Amino acid sequence: MTDILPTYLDLLDSQRETALRALEGFSDTQVWQRPAPKEWSIGEILNHNYLLIASTIPYVRAAWKVFRRVGERRRHRLYPTGIPDLYRDGKFPMWVGFLWTPRHNPRRPVPLSTVVEKLRGLHAEVRDFYTGKDEDILGNISLYDPMFGRLNLIVTLRLGLYHDQLYYDDVVAQAGKFKV
Fold first, then answer.
1. Dihedral angle, C-alpha 13, 43, 151, 75, nearest 10 °
2. Is 77 helix (H, G, I), strand (E, B) or coil?
3. C-alpha angle with apex 100: 8 to 96, nearest 5 degrees?
4. Which of 51, 53, 132, 141 has the highest CB neighbour count under 10 A?
5. CA atoms of 136 and 78, how far apart (whole Å)
6. What is the pLDDT of residue 57?
7. Distance CA 123, CA 112 (A)
8. Contact 79, 139 (CB under 8 A)
9. How far is residue 166's CA from residue 41's CA, in Å, rounded to a whole number?
10. Do 140 and 70 meet the contact criterion of CB atoms below 8 Å apart?
């Protein structure tokens, strides 16, 4: 067993909370203000992150349910627990973000507290799913992603962390511009 999951789950929480701390004292108006035409607001970025994980976790749960026995049989095989940050390698087509277009935007805003509550709740669901599961089994259950290929359930989580951090960096940068 590698014991990488607690590290990844803690990172899920810490990178989210770091980004949210940058928004302390922000009004809902500021959260939904776009920095430039056709660029996402802070609220849209957070909603995009939520939508990506919300669309992925059902597949992860289904893979666990359907392929758990396969993972149990293969548990003694080696498996990767990491992946390079493909979002920052310059080759990833960032235009695919339209697949998770934010449901909330400057014309349809919700309070920041609602966005934060939903994001924290979803991350709690992710933590609940992974907590207590044998990493050797999770590492031997795979999903297929058309952009990234075959990913086991541990690497799927790591890839989601890279995605979130990419956008949380944008949140912190935008928040910094408001505070100047």
1. 30
2. coil
3. 90
4. 141
5. 8
6. 96
7. 16
8. yes
9. 15
10. yes
Which residue's structure tokens are 């989580």? 157
Give me the residue label for tokens 């498996």. 79
Task: Give backbone dihedrals phi and psi of 11, rounded to 5 degrees, phi first.
Answer: -65, -40
Kindly write down the DSSP assignment for every residue of 32-69, as one continuous string: T--SSTTS--HHHHHHHHHHHHHHHHHHHHHHHHHHHH
Token pair belonging to 17: 């909370």
Taken as a whole, the chain contains a residue count of: 180
Q: Token match 């799913």: residue?
A: 129
Q: Report the pLDDT value the prediction gives residue 165, as an integer from 0 to 100.
A: 95
| pTM (two decimals) | 0.91
pLDDT for 178? 80
Note whether 86 and 162 are within 8 A (CB): yes
- Average pLDDT per consecutive 10 residues, the chain (180 residues; last block may be shorter): 88 97 94 92 95 94 97 97 84 56 89 97 98 97 89 96 94 85
In the prediction, which pLDDT does 97 show? Answer: 57
d(C-alpha 63, C-alpha 146), whole Å: 16
Domains of the chain by start residue, with CATH? 5-179 (1.20.120.450)
